[in-house]
Amino acid sequence: MGSNIAAEIGGMRQKEHIDAMEIMGVNTSAYLITPKILAALIVIPMLVAIAAFLSIVGGFLASVPTGLLSSSEYVLGVRSFFNDRNLTLMFVKAFVFAFLLTSVSAYQGYYVKGGSIELGRASTNAVVFSNVLILLFDYLIAVVFT
Predict the structure, then answer these.
(1) How far apart are CA 98 and CA 27, in angstroms?
(2) CA-to-CA distance for 29 and 37, rounded, in angstroms?
(3) C-alpha to C-alpha distance for 111 and 33, rounded to whole angstroms
């Protein structure tokens, strides 16, 4: 996703679409970057919630029909090991990672200069920098929450 954002915005920079919008008086960073960040801040936490739900359902389908656990034992286990701090941590990380992923990628694409080689480099840098920042913030969030 980050590579796509960087390549899309960088391609617009190379084809002078961004320059044309700036001449028309459009705030290009707000017009091009803000919707991507807002969309990621909405959709990525939704995907995390769906993944959490599907993992609980998948655990149920893997254990109850095979006879490893009864349904009441599974539900009791899920309820007894539920921790609302983990749920909070899950959504905090989802929001932070979504912001990092989109903002770093958009920055790399927005400020690309040169030809297709530089665009490829910016696209690669977007992925590398966002992954490194995600790992760093994952550590920092874990330290703050524990």
Answers:
(1) 23
(2) 11
(3) 12
Alpha carbon separation from 71 to 28, 51, 53, 65, 134 (Å, rounded)? 54, 21, 16, 9, 37
Rounded Cα distance, 97 and 141, in Å: 11
- Report d(CA 32, CA 107) in Å as an integer: 11
Residue range 86-104, pLDDT digits in tens = 999 999 999 999 999 999 9
Q: Measured on CA atoms in the order 107, 112, 117, 119, is the torsion positive or negative?
A: positive
Q: Which of 8, 40, 126 is nearest to 18 (CA)?
A: 8
**Could you tell me the sign of the dihedral formed by the alpha carbons of 8, 12, 13, 15, in that order?**
positive
CA pair distance 119, 141, nearest whole angstrom: 32
CB 9 within 8 A of CB 33: yes
pTM given for the model? 0.86
